Fold these 2 entries.
Entry 1:
Amino acid sequence: MEIVVHLSNAVAVLGQFPVLAGASITVERGEILLLQGPNGAGKTSLLRLFAGLLPLARGEGTVLGCDLRTNRQGVRKRVGLLGHANGLYSDLTVRENVRFWGSTIGATDSEVDAAMVRMGLAQRLKDVQVAKLSAGQKRRTALACLIARRAELWLLDEPHAGLDAAGRDELDATLREATVAGATIIVASHELERAGALASRLVEVVGGQIREAQPSPDRGAPSKAAG
Amino acid sequence: MFRVARLIAAKDLRIEVRSRVVTNQVLPFATIVMVMFAFALKTDEVVEKVAPGLVWLATLFSLLILVQRAFAVETADGATEAMRAAGVDPAGIFLGKALALAAQLAVLELLLLILAVVLYSAKLHAGGIVLLVTTLLAATCGLALVGTLYGGLAAGVRGRETLLPLLLLPVVAPVLIGATRATEAALGTSGAVVSDGWPWLGLLGVFVALFSVGGTLAFGPLIEE
Amino acid sequence: MTEIETSAAPASETNIKPPNASPVEVVSRRPSTGTPFTRILGIATLVSMALLVLFGLFLSPEDIVQGESVRILYIHVGTVWVAYVAFGLTALSSLAFLWKRTTSLTWDRIAGASAEVGVLFMALTLFAGAIWGRLSWGKFWVWDARVTTTAFLFITYIGYLAVRGLGGSHQQRGRRSAVVALLAVLEIPLVHFSVKLWRGLHQDGSVSDTTKVKLHDLMLFSLFISLIAFTLLFVWLVIHRQRVLAMQDAMDDKGLDYALEQRRSEAGL
């Protein structure tokens, strides 16, 4: 299977603090990978590293064939990141936001509309200003912006947080469809039940490093880590 | 790059139309500044003489606020980071935001000009209109370009509110000098004639040329991590 | 060289050997930033400064018009020369840092050290100039192109140093400051030119005529010594400051290694 992400002893810093302290992982196309771990472990930084935002201080890393040490720009157009913040403009309506973010990669109007339909925004909410939405609705809008990008690699930071049950089901269905269409998905989440059911593989992020958490025949049971 | 610029300029202007921050807050601010100048200066004669300078000073102060606003919109919900993550061409972001900023500045300057006529008894005359309009255009472009450039640098870093004026004001000094002298020539203040103004317009043109190229190249590295 | 060097200088940071002894070797050998080269340089600086004092204060004649106050010229010209050399050095090192072939944090540190020293000398220039102006023609300040541009350069460099202090990784600091420095190269000539054009139209530029001092041979010689002395001082200061910055950066890297250890131990490995 094609390797979409490969990290080898990656070290990344925020200021002088090593958020990632030697992380290694290989992700294949079509996987839905779940990152678990305590707060401060480095999950968000790992996602930002994959998105080509965070520079690599030491070690090696390749995402979608682009070397993270030399070509972070190349990664960005092909990746979709949903971070903690939504990246929305509060004075614009839902439709204007999704359309804007879609246009940044040249999505057509129909793709934009389809994305809004998927997240249940096409009826009542599409002409409502984002400032007037609830937190969950804003999250859904941000997800719609992500869907409209049709990225090859989806990076989601706590996507289920703030969504109601219907929203979560919709999100899960969308993610599964995306992998069928060839995308790869990496999710950081504290919601082990729901995200665990969705994911094809689990890893633990602790102390800026990555450990496989799934028990498998040739490895042992996962070690109980601090936190 | 230009497609992205148009997209972003349209987005910024749409936000402004929707939120009306410039019309409801910045224009009144500029008006107060113009009134305050008159309070601070002693006689009507003095005020009339320095009217062009006051207009451009008020523009500069308002520029600081406009730039802060332009980038506050982006940093409020992590939009700059999202734009970087989306691989949007930074040169396009630069030009687009500069374009939107220029449009807002142009509106501001028109208002200030009207105020100058009303409050400072400045007189417009037909011979100087061409010079006046071209000066406004050139100065607006220059200010918008450097404002966007340094605004991008200062956005999202600590101390941004104080860093921006410190970096920006020295850089816009040539625009202040050039635009004021050209405006004086266009309005005939202090005995200046229209032909005096054209060299200053040349200066403004050089400024715009240098910073449009320089800014396009520099903006990407400045907002990068 | 030794194990200390390899652990204190990760390959990602320094690609070029700086002109003098590598600061890292210096760090590992002794706690100071002095080397034989800078010792000699320092002595040369002291000697030339002594010569300057001798010639400037005692041996050179007083000016016909200005009297003894012309002696400030020897300091003023020296400091303004250094200020502009510092500016040029910062700009050039910033360019060298950004250029893919020669990129190295040493250039970034040279740019920073040069800017710090430059700001100091610009302040001295403005101060000495103000005193001289007051003594010679009664005004602390004059609105001509050279003076105003120097003042602007001063402010611009304070802004540059503020940008250097914004934090982030060393690479980020280097890239951001280098761009700001190069933008300043665009801006400063524009300021100079616009002020020149501005004051050129006004006839009260006659003040600048009195800055023309009739230069006696001995005075010229003293000026020459001044330039040499101040240049030596500048080079000495920048070399030392760059090394101190290199030590700080090396300390940061060591701090990173230590922090990595700590971080890894969070995982209980």
Note: Residues 39 and 210 of chain A are 14 Å apart (CA to CA).
Entry 2:
Amino acid sequence: MVTVMEIYQLLPKTNCKKCGESTCMAFAVSLLGRKKQVVECTPLLEENFKKQKEKLETILLPCAGAQETGMIVHTELCTGCGNCVVACPVDVANDPHGAGMGCAPTNDKVIFKVIDGKVVASNIKECRRFGKNKVLCYACIDPCPTGAIEFV
Amino acid sequence: MFTCTGCALLCEDIEAIVENNRIKEIRNACRRGAARMKGCMNRLVPSIAQKPADIESSIKKAAQILRNAKSPMLFGFDNSTSEAQIKGIQLARKINAIIDDTSSFCQGILIENILHKKLRTCSLDDIRNKADVLVYWGSDAQDSQPRHLSRFSYFPRGESRQRGYEEDRLAIAIDVRESNTAKICKGHFYRIPLKGDREFILALMEALSGKAPAYDTKNMLGLASILKKAQFGGIFVGIGLTYSIKNDFEILTALADMLPKFNIMPMVGHYNMRGFNEVLFKETGFVNRVRFEGNGVQDNKYAIIEALKNKSIDALVVVGSDPVLSLPRIVIPHLASIPVVCIDPCQTFTSGIATVNIPSAASGVESSGSAVRMDGKVIGLKKILENNYLSDEDIMKRLMEAV
Amino acid sequence: MGIDIGKFLKNPEFEILITTYRDIFQVEALEKDRFGEEYMKLSAVISLSKNDLQKMGFKPGDRVKLSNNYGSVVVEVKESKKNEPGGLAFMINSPWANSLISDETDGKGIPEFKHVKAKISLSKEQITPIVVLIGTFYK
């Protein structure tokens, strides 16, 4: 789980207030709570902050998932077994002959991908827990042998 | 798409992102497979007497060791392509050597029974398409063959099992501990004591024949009832069960006879162990522990552990295996006292004491060939990276020329 | 009625039964670097149930000496992840476990990898490093 200090370390730390918050620390808290976007810090869009901006976008990704659907993947627990990929009803519907069968995905509409042996969540908004007709779906949690998927 | 060599599932849907002739990213393989495909940190370098040498001299020295030996043994091959295994057997034949693989202290006895058609078996594709009852016995597939349940046995929908694990399949685990696999078989986990498989099987057989066994009556009757209703079942025999019943293996045959709808599937770790067993079986009628003196003769004394215990070999060639890692420490002293030739892509504990080290290509990444999946299906391996390493097959050929 | 010697022994020894198993994270460490810290951290371990830990007076993180007729090693004690009832200890397949495996095979080539009797006691020594386990074989 990314911490507010990890986010803060990547910010300009000038307290310029261009984002609308009084300090960079306050902005870091807003980012963690998904109340603000990285691009609202205009200094980060400059060339000399390119690396920090990219790193921020990467580490804030699981949070993005957590906010919208509450899903977090604990990578250090994941064995890459693919149970969640094939159990996910969205994967079965969107990719019946690929991810829906436990094989490699044949398109990009899947929610779970296995990269370097660990699950990476993508297309989180396709998840049944998101959107107007959301349901409390547990299809990916139950089959996980190590409890690597969590909904917060 | 490439084939993973992490275990004997040989998943063929692996994508590799290559950059600067190195694998930058592996997709779709499990954690174990990804680690295998990306390779180890310490590649083996050619050496003689633990001092760096060029590869030609190392091969020559290895050949010399084999020529001078009265009782040489070739061991390993479970991480080699079938083509390399065939060449290894030819080499053993040429020099009247013993040849053995890790199956002699692993699943050899199970595979032997399957190849002799004493146990009914089927393909993993059949399991996916038809199986409704799955029994993981002494097997923690989730740790050893991680994509077994997601690609084949439990989770996916199949032709006759369109509603997959949710409604069409039942998974049962029988083990001495609650493994990760047992955790998935919620409500159908049977915990048995160590070495308790024989008693369990006898009680189950009683229950299957309509009697109420004294042992764990309620559970046995319940399990028998589930198994009897199965339309197409799979018993996945892990090393836990094999080790437990190794001295009376026919108890499994007896149980299988009472379950005509069930198929016995070996759970194999090394990616081409079954390949070695099949290739040797085709050549000699035996799956392991063979000595060539003209024809191939099988005897327990040719198993690696017996040969080391009895100090009956005087030279050892190790191909893609690490006996100093895997064998009981108490049998290692003899191995350390004889000339050892180690052929491997990586540095291992065995290469650290070997007389000659010959680096080889990592098969499925740096060399191509074929392998046999745990259910007997032949799968092709492709080369992913351009390289200058000799494949196991090449090294066997060179040794044959040089002995 | 005899004297309870156990009361006076500062470092009690217990007989345990060990079985071996495989773990994907340890296999990953093996594939990457079998000489490394991660492999040792995941392998030089014995897992006991909560009940057994209490009975024997060990805490997770303690170092223990395991010994039998075939060898001895010092490893770290952990608590079993799942609810194990006790009476059985678990070690991952590794050179540490292999130090305790007997070579009794009935002449059939298969040792008892999954059925190991050993004595366990608290130890102040370091966890046996791989270089000690294997290094004695180096020429």
Note: The longest helix of chain C spans residues 24-33.
